[in-house]
Design brief:
Number of helices: 11
Structural class: mainly alpha
Number of domains: 1
Helix content: over 70%
Strand content: under 5%
Number of strands: 0
Length: 203
């Protein structure tokens, strides 16, 4: 059991540390609140925990179907692109604190998790193997996997959020605008990548 949880921790940490749309959004939302990371993690769990349960009950093959991958890629990617474009357009007022995005960090966590086809496919493939191994220890093993994986996201995003909130006032205005520009472009880039992956699934 401990070996399984150690592997879950390491795999989860390697994924959490890689910059992605969730990281970019938490970075931007942390200007307003040091709790943005925790809120985004909770939103992430709203999608992730039911997904893990579905995979536990045998839905992994459903998410591997071509039509499902196409819909996830195009619809999810389009939503992430929309979020990135909105952030880019408002980057200057966001940097000065005069305005915030129309969605909070909790909602962003839900949207970015549901809109990321690679996140869903990861759970349907690599994650499914972890779920099966955890299930060997009963429901206790399954919930231990969920809590271990989610705690990594929670701790990492909370650290990022707290650091940004405490230090962003010390950043030069031009640098703050550059941060929002980079975050928005990252969202657009990932969203575009998700959409391309959807079309590649049916090519």
């Amino acid at each position: 059991m401990l070996a399984l949880l150690a592997s879950v921790f390491i795999i989860s940490l390697s994924g959490a540390l890689m910059p992605g749309p969730m990281f970019a959004t938490v970075l931007a939302k942390s200007y307003k609140s040091p709790w943005a990371g925790a809120q985004a993690s909770l939103g992430h769990a709203v999608v992730e925990v039911p997904l893990i349960m579905l995979i536990y009950f045998g839905a992994a093959t459903f998410f591997e179907q071509t039509a499902v991958q196409f819909i996830l890629g195009v619809a999810g990617g389009g939503m992430v692109v929309w979020m990135g474009i909105g952030m880019f357009r408002a980057r200057k007022v966001l940097a000065t604190g005069q305005k915030d995005t129309p969605y909070n960090a909790f909602t962003a966590g839900i949207m970015l998790s549901a809109g990321n086809p690679f996140f869903i496919l990861w759970w349907a493939t690599v994650g499914a193997l972890l779920v099966l191994r955890a299930a060997e220890f009963g429901t206790g093993g399954l919930w231990a996997l969920v809590l271990t994986h989610w705690s990594v996201d929670l701790i990492w995003l909370s650290i990022v959020s707290a650091l940004v909130y405490k230090t962003h006032r010390l950043w030069a205005p031009a640098f703050q605008v550059a941060v929002f520009t980079a975050c928005s472009l990252l969202l657009v880039g990932f969203g575009g990548w998700f959409m391309v992956s959807g079309f590649q699934a049916i090519a």
